[in-house]
Amino acid sequence: MATQLSASALKVADRLTVLVADDNPADRMILGRLVERLGHQVYLAENGQVAVEQFSERRPDIVLLDALMPVMDGFEAARLIKQQAGEDLVPIIFLTSLTETDALVQCLEAGGDDFLTKPYNPVILDAKISAFRRMREMHQTLQAQRDVIAAQHASLLQDQEVAKIIFDRVAHSGALSHSSLRYLQSPYAMFNGDILLAANRPSGEMHLLLGDFTGHGLSAAIGAMPLAEVFYAMTAKGFALRDILFELNDKLATILPVGVFCCAVLIEVNPDKGLVEIWNGGLPDVMILGPSAELMRSVASTNLPLGVANRQRFNPQPEVMVMRPGERLLCWTDGVIESRNQAGELFGEAGVHEVLDAYLGHPGRIFDGLLGALERFHGSPEDDVSLLQVVMPERSERIPSPRATAPPSRPQDWCLSYTYRAASIREQNPLPFLLSRLLEIPGLRPQAGALFTVLSELYSNALEHGLLRLDSAWKQDSDGFALYYQERGERLRSLVDGWIRITLNHLPTPDGGMLQIECEDSGNGFAPDRACADYAGRGLALVAALAQEVEVKGASSTVRVVFSW
Amino acid sequence: MSIQATLSADSQVLTISVKGRFDFGAHQDFRNAYERSGLTPQEYVVDLHDTDYIDSSALGMLLLLRDHAGGDSAQISIVHCNPDVRKVLSISNFEQLFSIK
Questions:
Q1: Cβ atoms A492, A539 nearer than 8 A
Q2: Is the separation of the CB atoms in A263 and A281 below 8 Å?
């Protein structure tokens, strides 16, 4: 024999276990010895049934199987062995003296991978065993990689499940169950990067945030966390929309990588005054519909999305406008406009306007109408849509909250006075700070809402009429209203002189306490009785309804309010 | 989608043209277009003449380019937008950050 084959020629790792099944003892022995001399370990079987038993017991790497055997032939044995092997690749080589094409095809159909014809040629036998060893190794590598990928994928999905639970709790929470709201958020993949938040200020206004992060999944969810945290915390402390916007933009610009940002609409709904404030940065137009669902106004995006602009460039000034009870506001993320049907056509703004036209006179059905139209257009429920509807609630004529039973407090007897000068007034809102001082008095906590309203009305009066010299008479109609708030922003930015002093004087009484709030400004005073138009002059009336005593002194540049419990 | 970058003869202006959909699929190519080593153009032009769709991830990519080109001091113009593309850019008020022609 030209080729020298011996056991020592093989590395241990290359040694295989080989099952040889042949009913002819001489053939079996010859082949067994041949394989052994190639360096492999051999198990022998004299028929198909023994071969199957040997296979279950020994799990050999390769099976050499005679086709025609008593008890069980090679075809049946091959089927059973392949069955047992399952996902593992166990090459079966049929040993045959058959030469008819049909018989050879039958071998392959039974699960055989190759044939070896008698008499055996050791060089070919070695080559075939080596070829199948390589195939086995490849198969094992593939299986191992597949298992690693599957395990990682499973763990990723699990992480996403957990993250989604957290995201859902953060992103769709707060005061969303309020009766004036309707919304739809459909799940897309794991998360869609859309976020909808609602919360109430202590003074009763509702803040809403509808946002859409670039990207999907974890990166979007991560941005949602700080966004929600800042939004809830600042709203609960009584901050105004512009303060919250400023902080949100700053926070996102700091933590998000360049290229990730949040298109958002922020809304403040103030039923007491019949006002909404709307800030749109990167979302489609916000629509305001009248009592018969006619389109009254739309608020287009005039700002960069949150997290893009630096402090200097960012404009946190919302648009302020009148909204009467029963009027409704609709807004959505771009999933609505960019929804495409099977033919690839866009739903577009035209689609939205068609729906609005169709439901003219039926304002209560707009929301469902829009959902239905999207579903019909798309052919299935749309999966990347966030939609929000706010109906302006009836003005809640607020009465002083009933004497809530407060925990007994130690008598407190103090007075503090803060003077805010022009630079502070331009940049800051002092109210959350003052309110938090007041809420340290246990007896006042149940009345936080009323207190905050009183403080903010007094402060706005002093600022808008005293310092900025704005005339409430402008607020006769919607246009005047817009002008008023535009002018307010401009005058505030250019304020260089003036001050507002707020004095809180707290006195214990036998049953509880008394708080005097005095608000004084450097202006020439304002005429509290004059403006009684629909939207104006409600400030002091509101204060009067909430406090026990209101006194306007010194040509009305000082207002003193008494609050007792 | 295909992206092509051409440098002007004096190496001062890099023009990046985007064909077809400008969305997340373009991310790597768009980045390669301006990150190739040795390029220091004074000015960038993003030509969207043959762009038929743009999504928010493309907006993100434009911001990355702006950052790469020096942030507030970057000189980037976005040219030849069709009305749909223009609309997406203006909803996000990108004219405050880029010169859109």
A1: no
A2: yes
DSSP string of A19-84, one letter each residue: EEE-SSHHHHHHHHHHHHHTT-EEEEESSHHHHHHHHHHH--SEEEEESS-SSS-HHHHHHHHHHH
Query: A175-391, what's its fold?
Result: Phosphatase 2c; domain 1 (3.60.40)
Q: What is the pLDDT of residue A128?
A: 92
Is residue A217 pLDDT above 70, yes or no? no
Best-predicted range by mean pLDDT among A232-246, A423-437, A512-526, A550-564?
A232-246
| Mean residue pLDDT across chain A | 83
User: Three-state secondary structure along A517-553?
Assistant: EEEEECCCCCCCCCCCCCCCCHHHHHHHHHCCEEEEE
Report the pLDDT averaged over residues A551-562: 77
> For B67-80, what is the mean pLDDT?
92
- In terms of pTM, does the model score above 0.90? no
Q: Which segment of A393-397, A404-408, B44-48 scores lowest on mean pLDDT?
A: A404-408
Q: Closest by alpha carbon to B33, among B46, B42, B21, B43? A: B46
CATH number of the CATH domain containing B28: 3.30.750.24
Distance of residue B32 Cα from the nearest chain A Cα, in angstroms: 16
Q: How far apart are CA A195 and CA A160, in angstroms?
A: 17
- Residue indicated by tokens 């035209």: A350
Which CATH superfamily groups domain A7-142?
Response regulator (3.40.50.2300)
Of A258, A305, A310, the CB nearest to B92: A305
The residue range of the domain holding B60 is: 2-100
Mutate to test the interface with B, among A212, A308, A314, A315 (most CBs of B within 10 A): A308
